[in-house]
Amino acid sequence: MPDALPARSKHPALRVCRIEQFDAKGRGTGPTDTGGRLAVPYTIPGEVVEVEKLRRQEGRLRRVLEPSPVRIEPACAHFGVCGGCAWQHIDYAAQRQFKLDQIRERLSALDLCPEEESLCLEPSPPYAYRNRMDFIWWHDGRFGLRERGKWFSVVDLHECRLLPEEVMHTALEVNRRARALGLPFRDAKRQTPGLRYLVVRRGIFTGDLMVNFVSDPMDLPASLWEGLEGVTSVYQLVNDNLENDLSDGIPARLWGNPSYQERILDRIFEVGPRSFFQPNPAVAEKMAAYVRDRVNHRERRGGLLDLYCGIGLFSVCLADLFDHVTGVENNPEAVHWARINAAGLPISFVADDAETWLASPRREFDTLLVDPPRTGLPPRVIQAVLGQLFPNIVYVSCNPGRGLEDIAALAPHYRLHSARLFDQFPQTPHVELIAFLVRRN
Ligand SMILES: C[S@@+](CC[C@H](N)C(=O)[O-])C[C@H]1O[C@@H](n2cnc3c(N)ncnc32)[C@H](O)[C@@H]1O
What we know:
It is a single chain. The chain is α/β, with parallel strands linked by helices. It has 3 domains: 56 residues, CATH 2.40.50.140; 209 residues, 3-Layer(aba) Sandwich (Rossmann fold), CATH 3.40.50; 129 residues, CATH 2.40.50.1070. It has 8 helices and 23 strands. The strands form 5 sheets. It has an 8-stranded mixed beta sheet, sandwiched between helices. A 7-stranded mixed beta sheet has the order 10-9-8-11-12-13-14, with helices on one face. The longest helix has 18 residues. The protein is globular, with a radius of gyration of 23 Å. Bound molecules: S-adenosylmethionine (SAM). S-adenosylmethionine binds next to helix 4 and strand 18.
């Protein structure tokens, strides 16, 4: 029997909503006193809340009538407006449980069940874990992240709890200098050029700090970065397309080292300004250790194919467990750093599209590791994998909703041996999944 609708709000313009579950965006959803259902950001299952109905079945939280016992005071002054965090109002232990429950439900809905060990989640430091932030310079001088749900508005930030404090301090100092120098900020509407983004990248275990100015073609004075404590590398990423909004561009090194360094499992990784690195190095290290431990249980060594290999994190961490390793990655800059990171190891890296390369692989591989972007594996990659039948597959997914659909598509030929969650993204509804698949006999 579904629960009765919540009692009516005394305020005619408001509705009362009983929150039952989270949706994929981490918003609480549930029935309202007038019969519909709403998704309400910053609520928690079990709560009764008073909301204002907005467009597209979303409600704006006005008052919590019956709070959840796991509701807490958010740490950051910008929480509730800034698009960076969605779950600071939830106790961290409860966040982890919600993520576990959601993925368990998804597994069962897809009729997937890991054969060995029940699903568990590796935690993270709850704050100051991120190694990268892309701050926007808005035309009116605001500097920060986009407002939740509004690509056309930016929150002027004076703190960010996801970043180490000293990194945020450096970002604010760079912004102060940019303003004091009177540098222009790009205006997308009027199509006038200027500074666009400040991308800060931290080696969490090395202390390196790379500062990237994404801008239209323009001269940047050295006084923007001179004397900044801890900065090891400065780049300008030149984006001359007035119509796009990317925090990316053609790199020009302005000062310091060509890459920043990160240390994972006692190995040093060089990371270039346009190369991906896992956003939470403390958890990335646990991920690499987990995959190492799992692949070590195989009976024979064989070869490893690391598709979507980036700067070679998994290839390098696993190389000693295989006879040969091939990494495939479509970003030539990342491949350049992968080759440097793998110096002396039996790994070959190929700069190619995963789909194209997989259509004609040149060797046999015992294990396929895939770590695709949030969009998951393209259908043709799934078809190629089903056609070639690797004995083992390691699926690393930053979007398990999508990753589990791919795993279900592979299920006719592969059974789900084991899986674990890694909380790379505390204070948000996102989580990382690593699954091990074994070919059916
Ligand atoms: C989630 S990252 C994983 C990187 C790496 N496994 C790591 O742990 O650092 C996905 C990588 O896939 C690359 N990529 C995206 N689309 C690709 C494609 N179609 N073919 C090959 N690589 C691709 C991206 O450049 C990025 O480096």
